[in-house]
Amino acid sequence: MSETKFVAANGIRFGYFEEGQGPLVLMFHGFPDTAHTWEHVRPKIAAKGYRVVTPFLRGYAPTEIPARDADSETIARDALALIDALGEKSAILIGHDWGATVVYGATALDPARVSKLIAVGIPHPSTLKPTLRKVWGVRHFVIFKLPGAAKRFAANDFAELPSVCNRWSPKWHPTPDDLRHVRECFSNAASCEAAMGYYRTLKFTPYAFMNPTIAVPTVVFCGTDDPNAELVDYERARRKFSGEYTIETMPGGHFMHLEHPDIFAAKLLPHL
Questions:
Q1: What is the pLDDT along the chain (272 residues), one digit of tens a residue?
Q2: DSSP notation for 238-270
Q3: What is the DSSP secondary-structure string of 168-219?
Q4: What is d(CA 161, CA 153) in angstroms, rounded to the nearest whole number?
Q5: How many domains does the chain have?
Q6: Domain of 72: which CATH number?
Q7: Which of 12, 16, 58, 104 has the fewest CB atoms within 10 Å, i.e. is most exposed?
Q8: Domain limits at 139?
Q9: Which of 204, 210, 229, 209 is nearest to 30 (CA)?
Q10: Between 72-85 and 98-109, two packed helices, what is the crossing angle to 10 degrees?
Q11: 174-178: long-range contacts at Cβ-Cβ below 8 A with a sequence spacing of 24 or more?
Q12: pTM of this prediction?
């Protein structure tokens, strides 16, 4: 496991792992997850001649806890600030779940800083169309807005954690070891509270800063077992992209990169 490094960007101190040398690849995790989610694929990308940096998102320990809840534009600007803080002019951006929001947003804000956009498990947010089944599948979007959400999520050693993962990836039954790093991160109560802050600020209407059509070459990963983000959702999102837009399908649900890490790596690497 790589040593944790730290860098100041966009007003807070980020913890991150780094491997390799070459053009910068920034990889952002989601919820409930940490930077450890990329441990399988990070060395494979580095071996291809890249400098791969996998930060812990704003508020996710050991990254600093922010003074206020994180919102979608702030976390998008975190990615751009990290490019600067790491001494680079541009980067390939890869993100899963909330990390996908990070990379979509950063690319919309400053496309000149992004050489390629790769999003995993989330179609472009402004194109999502709710159905009753999908709303039920993402009911945590509302539940986590409620007072006391962090304490309820942490109850009984995060007993809800595996069921949340299984709901989004129905064929995945994570072991305690699979979720060990998440429990370690959220054992810091302030970090768990900060993670809920993403949902407290979440709006259910499109964000103006994400309106621009994206010309940057883009690859999106769709899990064929994902009950909440289906192939039709990624096809609908194509209208937000004026440049190259590639949909990669693979087995697995929302956490496809953890369910089938070798397949994910094999499909990802040729796009770099």
A1: 579 999 999 999 999 999 999 999 999 999 999 999 999 999 999 999 999 999 999 999 999 999 999 999 999 999 999 999 999 999 999 999 999 999 999 999 999 999 999 999 999 999 987 676 776 667 777 889 999 999 999 999 999 999 899 999 999 999 999 999 999 999 999 999 999 999 999 987 888 999 999 999 999 999 999 999 999 999 999 999 999 999 999 999 999 999 999 999 999 999 99
A2: GGGBSS-EEEEEESSSTTHHHHSHHHHHHHHGG
A3: HSTT----TTTTHHHHHHHTSHHHHHHHHHHHHT--SS--GGG-SPB-S-EE
A4: 7
A5: 1
A6: 3.40.50.1820
A7: 12
A8: 5-271
A9: 229
A10: 70
A11: 174/258, 178/258
A12: 0.96
Amino acid of residue 272: L
Cβ contacts of 209 within 8 Å, gap of 6 or more: 73, 76, 105, 108, 109
H-helix or E-strand containing 272? none
Kind and range of the H or E run holding 56: none
Single out the residue of 159, 170, 175, 177 nearest to residue 223, CA to CA: 170
Strands of the sheet containing 91-96, edge to edge, are 5-9, 12-19, 51-55, 24-28, 91-96, 114-120, 218-223, 245-250
Beta carbons within 10 angstroms of residue 143's beta carbon: 14
The one-letter code for the residue type at 235 is E
Which two structure tokens, joined as six digits, stand for 203? 């709006």
